[in-house]
């Protein structure tokens, strides 16, 4: 049997997919202020339907899960109805689409919370204002996060239930599955990280206890929509948003082994290299491959060349591209032909909620390709364009 390449078909869950070039979840701040998807979003995702799988931007599953303006949600009938045109548009173009569920936890403000309460977290620990403990939300200025309050054990169970309900709504809205955002310092990652989770109940302390919330959310979603429709994103080496772990190798090895036994659709693993990341001989994708038996999607700074090499070598089963897919809606076609790539414009990543820098990136025109510089197809996304610097934020 020959080694797979980026264009080898595969089966994910019970969906046949055409290639291993996926669209990584990317928050774009183009929903309404009431967290409802817009027709512009349907157009944007349909443009990218050539991806093996689209994973949507982070979508808020719970009233306590909101942290931004113009980011969509999936916990009311209105949200659910708003997603239907998105899934229809992608399916009409033959695509596969998973919704990412993103509960922000402590990365929020009282004005986004029910009854103006404090944002919730595993423990009442404020993100360090000197260490990315602030956000920038279009069109608002930069501001520091406050001190959250710790979820009670009963509220943890409520949040698990919100995730399961969100997954049911996502599938009812036509999604092929969901991906749980357990990366980048959001709620699930806050439970995983020893620096942020100081709980003394069964959700804190030991590795097994800190991983418990992740697994209970996954199990509730699996029970609601099936393992073949359930996926997870992890970023084991990434301490962005001020989440650190005493022993990330132990924590994430345990998480990977436990997830492995659940027969999920896929596990997406981000590794950002030098940006807000542990420097170690052990890299995240390799560690996950060692402990996770299922379909593994690698992410973080891949080019066409490095992605193809990783798949051919069996390090990963697919590659997800964030910034490059934002700027190149027809990325698989461009890779296939060695066509030049458009560079992403980070100034329009996080809104404003208009078509500019969103649905107006061009598709490649082969007739204009004479003399095109195929080497530029090896352009990799520069992480400094998506890791927020002093005046930006990201998800
Ligand atoms: C504009 C933008 C928004 C992002 N939003 C999310 C998000 O909502 N959820 C998530 O898991 N990752 C998010 N990310 C991270 C990407 O999924 C991906 O991990 C990262 O861009 C690295 O992949 P790349 O080098 O191919 O861009 C975002 C990245 C960008 C550029």
Structure in words:
- Belongs to the NADH:flavin oxidoreductase/NADH oxidase family.
- Keywords: Oxidoreductase.
- This protein has 10 helices and 14 strands.
- With 395 residues, it is α/β, with parallel strands linked by helices.
- The protein has a single domain, classed as TIM Barrel, CATH 3.20.20.70.
- The strands form 4 sheets. An 8-stranded parallel β-sheet has the order 3-14-13-12-11-10-5-4. A two-stranded antiparallel sheet has the order 1-2.
- α5 packs parallel to α6 and α6 crosses α7.
- It starts with 9 loop residues before the first strand and ends in a 58-residue tail after the last helix.
- Bound molecules: flavin mononucleotide.
- Flavin mononucleotide binds next to β4 and α9.
The count of β-strands is 14
Percent in helix:
25-40%
Average pLDDT, rounded to a whole number, is: 91
Roughly how many Å is the radius of gyration? 19 Å
Measured between the Cα atoms of the first and last residue, the distance is 39 Å
Would you state the CATH class? Alpha Beta
Looking at the structure, the CATH topology is TIM Barrel
Strand order of the largest sheet: 3-14-13-12-11-10-5-4
Structural class: alpha/beta
Give the name of the CATH superfamily.
Aldolase class I
The total count of helices amounts to 10
User: What general form does the structure show?
Assistant: globular
Q: Secondary-structure element sequence?
A: EEEHEHEEEEEHEHHEHEHEHEHH
Strand composition percent: 5-15%
What small molecules are bound in this structure?
flavin mononucleotide
**Low confidence ranges:** 370-378, 381-395
- Specify the CATH architecture: Alpha-Beta Barrel
Q: Please summarize the sheet with the most strands.
A: 8 strands, parallel
Structural domain tally: 1
């Amino acid at each position: 049997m020959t080694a797979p390449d980026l264009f080898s078909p595969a089966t994910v869950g019970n969906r046949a997919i055409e290639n291993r070039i996926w669209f990584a979840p990317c928050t774009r701040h183009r929903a309404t202020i009431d967290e409802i998807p817009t027709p512009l979003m349907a157009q944007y995702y349909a443009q990218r339907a050539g991806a093996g799988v689209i994973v949507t931007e982070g979508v808020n599953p719970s009233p306590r899960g909101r942290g931004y303006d113009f980011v969509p949600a999936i916990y009311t009938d209105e949200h659910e109805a708003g997603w239907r045109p998105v899934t229809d548009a992608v399916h009409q173009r033959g695509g596969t689409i998973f919704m990412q569920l993103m509960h922000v936890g402590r990365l929020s403000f009282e004005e986004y919370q029910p009854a103006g309460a404090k944002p919730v977290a595993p423990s009442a620990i404020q993100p360090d204002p000197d260490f990315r403990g602030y956000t920038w939300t279009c069109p608002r200025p930069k501001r520091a996060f406050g001190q959250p309050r710790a979820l009670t054990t009963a509220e943890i169970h409520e949040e698990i239930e919100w995730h399961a309900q969100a997954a049911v709504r996502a599938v009812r809205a036509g999604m092929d599955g969901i991906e749980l955002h357990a990366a980048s310092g959001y709620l699930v990652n806050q439970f995983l990280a020893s620096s942020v989770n100081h709980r003394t109940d069964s959700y804190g302390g030991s590795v097994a206890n800190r991983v418990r919330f992740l697994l209970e959310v996954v199990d509730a979603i699996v029970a609601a929509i099936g393992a073949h429709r359930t996926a997870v994103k992890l970023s084991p080496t990434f301490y962005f948003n001020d989440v650190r772990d005493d022993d990330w190798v132990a924590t994430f090895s345990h998480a990977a082994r436990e997830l492995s036994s659940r027969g999920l659709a896929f596990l997406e693993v981000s590794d950002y290299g030098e940006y807000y990341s542990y420097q170690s001989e052990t890299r995240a994708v390799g560690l996950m491959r060692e402990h996770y038996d299922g379909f593994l999607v690698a992410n973080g700074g891949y080019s066409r060349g490095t992605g193809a090499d990783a798949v051919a070598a069996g390090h990963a089963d697919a590659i997800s591209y964030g910034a490059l897919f934002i700027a190149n809606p027809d990325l698989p076609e461009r890779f296939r032909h060695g066509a030049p790539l458009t560079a992403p414009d980070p100034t329009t990543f996080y809104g404003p909620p208009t078509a500019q820098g969103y649905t107006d990136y061009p598709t490649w025109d082969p007739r204009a390709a004479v003399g095109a510089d195929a080497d530029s197809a090896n352009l990799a996304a520069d992480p400094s364009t998506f890791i927020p610097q002093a005046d930006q934020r990201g998800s």
